[in-house]
Specification:
- The complex is a heterodimer.
- Chain A is mainly alpha-helical.
- Chain A has 2 domains: 44-302, Cytochrome Bc1 Complex, Chain C (Up-down Bundle); 303-453 and 457-461, Cytochrome Bc1 Complex, Chain C (Up-down Bundle).
- Chain A is 63% helix and 1% strand.
- In chain A, strands 1-2 form a two-stranded antiparallel sheet.
- Chain A is globular and about 70 Å long.
- The two termini of chain A are 41 Å apart.
- By secondary structure, chain B is of the alpha+beta class.
- Chain B has one domain (20-155, 208-259): Cytochrome c-like domain (Cytochrome Bc1 Complex, Chain D, domain 2, Orthogonal Bundle), CATH 1.10.760.
- Chain B is built from 11 helices and 7 strands.
- Chain B has helices spanning 2-11, 34-47, 69-75, 93-100, 110-114, 116-122, 151-154, 167-175, 188-191, 213-231, 235-264; strands at 54-58, 86-87, 126-128, 136-138, 156-164, 181-185, 198-207.
- In chain B, the strands form 3 sheets. A 3-stranded antiparallel β-sheet of chain B has the order 5-7-6. In chain B, strands 1-2 form a two-stranded antiparallel ribbon.
- The longest helix of chain B is centred in the last third of the chain and has 30 residues, at 235-264.
- Classes of the chains: A mainly alpha, B alpha+beta.
- At the A-B interface, helix 4, helix 5, helix 7, helix 8 and helix 10 of A face helix 1, strand 1, helix 5 and helix 11 of B.
Chain lengths: 465, 268
């Protein structure tokens, strides 16, 4: 719209002239309307809908506290550990900044896991929100990279050996693995070089990607509109006169004030941890990470931070014995797909893939498949929009099989997470293997159970509380 | 590939390694007890800092314990360091390695690694062991490289073994001990059938030191109190500020809730 045609801004009192001046040169009013005052969100959001905005708030905490930490942190193997203690002891309010950052890392994952679980509950990844979900998943991957790189920086024993173990996993990739691992580390072991480059990734590369992805995630959301606990589209029932969804309320002020309330609740929980239990019993800050990194002393027990432990458990669950279970799984899946699809070309493809996998199980070491399965366990969420064939979106109207499957998945995720913090015993490995099987069956069988499940009819409009 | 095997080797045998069976004593620490912290600081610079540094602590921070600069200079700095300097030791890492086999760790944040109870039990669990290089061993930390620096105060302890038929009796006896105790369990093969399989290991004082056992426990308690304070000198301030922050947030909670309800009262 040409500047001359725009209406002057009203309602901003003494700022009317200034805002009009800006609006004639920048899409100020239209952006405000499109994303806030005239973005209509369903009115029936519940508890689960707080975590998106909270995750964004934690991102802000991390960036702001991160900026202040970099002012005193030294990314140098000889100085890193002491510089963190310098921040904790001698920088005014340094302990507060540092604890907010370390606690914020864990809370970021708490918010994102709950946000993702919300999407799984209410089918928020279903058409037309597939791309929105994919952006979200990319954010999740960036966040894991951010957490991993950042955890090396305090240069404690767990920082060092955790990074050592994870980068060494890349070694297991056939052919290119060993060179790739050296390329990532910049050295044959985790060293000063590694610390420097992880610092660069942590403070600039990944945060830039994160911010861009968050922007894309929000734009995609505002393009397709928010889902809601009933999983019905509010855009289908509009007021014939105004064109506004009957079940929508403007995001601002309705959800800005509601999220502000949620934010205060969050800040209370967050502050309790920051001020009274920043170590969280060794889960947020591990005890052994207060020992400076020593490349010559391998700790007895290397455990990743809690938010990585489910995947770490899956890695450890893939032992020699488990390969039979994997092979049986591949045969079963291939049989199921062959029985379900009609086209010959697809059948041949599936059979070929299954044979290649079986040959691979036989030819390559179980550790390779452990790494592959760990990678798959984080990536498989990408496929959810296409795995879910249910006629309804929301768990409220889904049938008993889907409900049971989701419940089992959550239990498996938590059990795997807990096992990942512990040392290995025979019984624990068995439990992790059962958990791993449940974890993947939830996804792989979804196209079938979500289709045959007896769902309830969806309501015409959202059901208000 | 090798790295992965190394990873499994690292992770797997931990299940087999016997878990530390020593029952830790509860450390009587109180970060508000300034007299105890001062006494602990004195013991720390007198005994620990001959070998161990506290390289993340500045002497100046000791003023937080209610001491004046002059008091710190006169009583707590023996190295000729200035009060603004870090609490380091003269011994180099290379020398330390030569003398002890392993350099004594920096103790600035050791309380956050081990915990106060571990340190308190450890410092009271040395015993004479003619087979070790230093002549000392420790109930909590088997074959530790550190000699018993405080032995002139505590006296010399020796390890005593008592055999029991069942675990309950052994534990009941152990609980009566003032010092650390642990129970080793023999398999029936080792001990023979119906034999006394439970060996309770304790320590007992063979020759008394300059302090009574009670006074020695107090000295170690003060030392551990100081080390715990030193690991996070801002702990008390952190909690005090925490209460204020939560209080403000509770007020905000009420206001933001009322605002939310006010805006939403028309939405049905």
């Amino acid at each position: 719209m040409a500047a001359a045609e725009k209406q002057p801004v009203t309602g901003a009192g003494p700022f009317n002239d200034l805002l009009t001046w800006i609006d004639q040169r920048y899409p100020l009013v239209s952006t405000w309307k499109q994303h806030l005052s005239e973005y209509y969100a369903p009115k029936n959001f519940n508890f689960w809908y707080y975590f998106g905005s909270l995750a964004m708030f934690v991102l802000v905490i991390q960036i702001v506290t991160g900026i202040f930490l970099t002012m005193n942190y030294k990314p140098d193997a000889a100085q890193a550990f002491a510089s963190v203690e310098y921040i904790m002891r001698e920088v005014p309010w340094g302990w507060w900044i540092r604890y907010m950052h370390s606690t914020g890392a864990s809370f970021f994952f708490i918010c994102v896991y709950l946000h993702m679980f919300r999407a799984m509950l209410y089918g928020s990844y279903r058409k037309p929100r597939e791309l929105l979900w994919i952006f979200g998943m990319l954010i999740f991957l960036c966040l894991m990279a951010e957490g991993f790189f950042g955890y090396l920086l305090p240069w404690g024993q767990m920082s060092y050996w955790g990074a050592q173990v994870i980068v060494n996993l890349i070694d297991a990739i056939p052919i290119i693995g060993p060179d790739l691992a050296i390329w990532i580390r910049g050295d044959y072991v985790v060293s000063d070089t590694t610390l420097n480059r992880f610092f660069a990734y942590h403070v600039i590369a990944v945060p830039l990607a994160l911010l861009a992805l968050v922007a894309a995630h929000l734009l995609a959301l505002h393009e397709v509109g928010s889902n809601n606990p009933d999983g019905v589209e509010i855009a289908k029932k509009k007021d014939p006169k105004t064109g506004i969804p009957l079940d929508g309320v403007p995001f601002h002020p309705y959800y800005t004030v509601k999220d502000a309330f949620g934010l205060v609740v969050f800040l209370i929980v967050f502050s309790i941890v920051v001020f009274f239990a920043p170590e969280m019993g060794g889960y947020f800050l591990e005890h052994n990470n207060f020992i400076p990194a020593d490349p010559l002393k391998t700790p007895q027990h290397i455990a990743p931070v809690w938010y990585f432990t489910p995947y770490y458990s899956i890695l450890r669950a893939v032992t020699e014995d488990f390969m039979w279970v994997l092979a049986a799984g591949v045969v079963g899946m291939a049989g199921l797909i062959l029985w379900s699809v009609k086209s010959t070309a697809r059948r041949v493809t599936v059979a070929a893939v299954a044979l290649v996998l079986l040959a691979g199980f036989y030819a390559l070491d179980p550790k390779v498949w452990g790494v592959a399965l760990m990678g798959l366990s984080t990536m498989i969420f990408f496929l959810l929009p296409w795995l879910d064939r249910s006629p309804v979106k929301s768990i409220r109207y889904k049938g008993p099989i889907t409900k049971a499957a989701l419940a089992l998945f959550v239990i498996a995720f938590i059990v795997l997470g807990y096992l990942g913090t512990l040392t290995v015993t025979e019984a624990r490995t068995l439990a992790a293997q059962v958990g791993t099987a449940v974890y993947f069956l939830f996804f792989f069988l979804m196209p079938w159970y979500s289709k045959i499940d007896k769902c309830l009819p969806e309501p015409e409009r959202v059901t208000s509380k | 590939m090798k790295a992965f095997i190394a990873l499994l080797v690292l992770a797997a045998p931990l299940a087999l390694a016997a878990e530390d069976p020593v029952r830790l004593d509860h450390a009587p620490i109180d970060p508000r007890d300034v007299a105890s912290l001062q006494a602990g600081a004195r013991s720390f610079v007198n005994y620990c800092m001959n070998c161990h540094s506290a390289g993340m602590m500045r002497y100046h921070k000791l003023l937080d314990l209610g001491l004046t600069e002059q008091q710190v200079k006169d009583n707590l700095i023996f190295t000729g360091d200035k009060i603004g300097e870090l609490m380091n030791v003269a011994m180099t890492k290379k020398e330390a390695k030569e003398w002890f086999g392993t350099p004594p760790p920096d103790l600035s944040v050791i309380a956050r690694v081990r915990g106060a109870d571990w340190l308190y039990t450890y410092m009271r669990s040395f015993y004479r062991d003619p087979e070790s290089a230093t002549g000392w061993n420790n109930m909590v930390f088997e074959r530790v490289a550190m000699p018993h620096v405080l032995w002139t105060l505590s006296g010399q302890q020796v390890q005593v073994e008592r055999k029991f038929r069942n675990l309950e009796q052994a534990e009941a006896f152990g609980r009566q001990q003032r010092n650390a105790w642990k129970i080793e369990v023999l398999t029936p093969d080792q001990a023979g059938k119906d034999a006394e399989r439970y060996i309770l290991k304790t320590i007992t004082t063979a020759t008394p030191g300059a302090l009574s056992q009670r006074d020695y426990d107090i000295l170690v308690g003060d030392l551990v109190n100081f080390m715990t304070w030193m690991a996070e000198p801002n702990l008390l301030a952190r909690k005090q500020i925490g209460y204020a922050v939560i209080l403000v947030l509770l007020v905000l909670l009420v206001l933001s809730y009322l605002l939310y309800k006010e805006f939403w009262k028309d939405v049905h």
